[in-house]
Amino acid sequence: MEHSSLDSSFYQAADQFFQGQGGTALTYDDVTLATLYSEVLPRDTSIETTLAEGLSLHIPLISADMDTVTESSMAIAMALNGGLGLIHCNMPERQQLSEVSRVKNNVHGLIQEPIKVSPEQEIGDVLELIEQKAFAFRTFPVVDESERLLGLLPGHAVRPRYAAVRVLDAMTPRKLVQTIRESELGADPIARADQFFSEHVGMHKLLVVNDADQLRGLFTISDIERILHERHAQLKPARDSQFRLLCGASVSATRSSSTGDLDRDRIVAHVTGLVERGADLVAISTAHGHSRGVGEAVRFLRSEFPTLPLMAGNVTSGAGVAYLAECGANVIKIGQGPGSICTTRVVAGVGIPQLTALYVAAKAAAAHGVTLVADGGITKSGDIVKALTLGHSVMCGGLLAGCPEAPGQIIEINGKLYKQYRGMGSLAAMRAGSAARYGHATKDTARKLAAEGVEALKELSPPLDTVLLQLTGGLQSGMGYLGARNLTELRSKARYIRVTPAGQRESAPHDVIEMKASGT
Ligand code: XMP
């Protein structure tokens, strides 16, 4: 037997492998990928992915629409690193709209709400403010009540000996303050600010004003230098055609409390608001996407918004993918019960281990021209490589919930730092509004519901960009081992083989005393 045919009888392509499992469902750790001849170095691989027409990401990672994972800070950081944040909807609609606006209006490096002082204050008041708030800076823009710029209070004037001097008498007056119009920032505000600081030796701050000379923001030379330095190491931001960061948001398939029918007007009004604020993708996330309510919601959103990228889910069958695709979804979320905080399989006895679910879904997705998100159960970068042999992107909750950019306070327990992470089907999250996602009416939350998620903690992790660099670095290594230049090649080249529990033990560090845990 030739070497290569022996290889292919063990290391099988997706169809042969998954269909040959005799009806057994497999997940990430059940399987390993075979290495293949490669001329590809990890750093030369492209991990760009297209979710829907006109919506591409530089990295195939999406942060989950969960109330302990994605609000504007996470979505901004995800997009700055080339991915996408999906802002959860467990908050009043108006608040969610302003979270989306924050992402779409974010100018990286621009402090959009700088601390200002008024001309009538005394330097002593400013010194008090600095002490109270522990500010590390002493230069402040001076504005009137309508935010019009009057001058700049320089750091060298903010000293106790001038405590009784009015800001008005100590500031550099408006006509001597260098500013830039918001409209002149152009497509790359960082490059524009960098040019300004190079041309104006000794200046450390650049104020941004609008046409009415109202203060709109502030660049500092140290932020600009840090960002330019990081740009070499970091991934490219994911932006729309107007150079704004990409942002997704989820909506709930709300039902009218009187009739129990889908509240079409309310859902359409909600999505209209999101679209007006620039959302690039809207998701209907539910625990059971292959259901009439979700299908109807997708159908009427598709008819109201013919070109808006729509994500829907979750499903784990080919029929579920076909149903949502026929209703008009572009991106289908796969995953029932794999999440780190999920108890759906325990509580309801349903759900499919993730790799088999992805395989079955991928066949239908290819037939219907839609893309797949592997949602939940990703615990390490190797899982991302495996997921992307079948899907087009992955959605992570637990892997990102410990980052400082996730919502919520840092909690200290016995000297260790944590952040809260909870399932959207946990009682606390459903009481806060996510009951519809699990097929319950909000009023049901008054009585005892069967929770399908737990409330948990994650250890505080490094900032998101560090975590993403580790995850994408692992993905690129995997692609190098398979000789895959891009994600399309990864999908076609992948060869799978099952591993036994002994093989799984062999796959992780063993028979050593670990002194330092690896990053992911
Ligand atoms: P990871 O594993 O990344 O999973 O933490 C995140 C995904 O889990 C789903 N999710 C839930 N599933 N009960 C469930 O059965 C829940 O309470 C719950 N909350 C979130 C969701 O798809 C998310 O993206």
Low-confidence stretches: none
What percent of residues adopt helix (DSSP H or I)?
25-40%
Strand order of the largest sheet: 4-5-12-13-14-15-16-17
Whole-number mean pLDDT: 92
Structural class: alpha/beta
Which molecules other than protein and nucleic acid are bound? xanthosine-5'-monophosphate
Give the number of helices: 18
Account of the protein in words:
By secondary structure, the chain is an alpha/beta fold. The protein contains 18 helices and 21 strands. The chain has helices spanning 3-10, 14-19, 72-80, 93-104, 123-133, 167-170, 189-199, 221-233, 264-276, 292-304, 318-327, 344-348, 354-368, 381-387, 427-431, 464-482, 487-493, 501-507; strands spanning 31-33, 49-52, 55-57, 61-63, 84-87, 140-143, 149-153, 172-173, 179-181, 205-209, 215-220, 248-251, 281-285, 310-315, 331-334, 371-375, 393-396, 410-413, 416-422, 455-459, 496-498. The relative contact order is 0.16. The protein binds xanthosine-5'-monophosphate (XMP). Xanthosine-5'-monophosphate is lined by residues 64, 66, 287, 314, 335, 337, 339-342, 344, 375-378, 395-399, 423-426, 452-453.
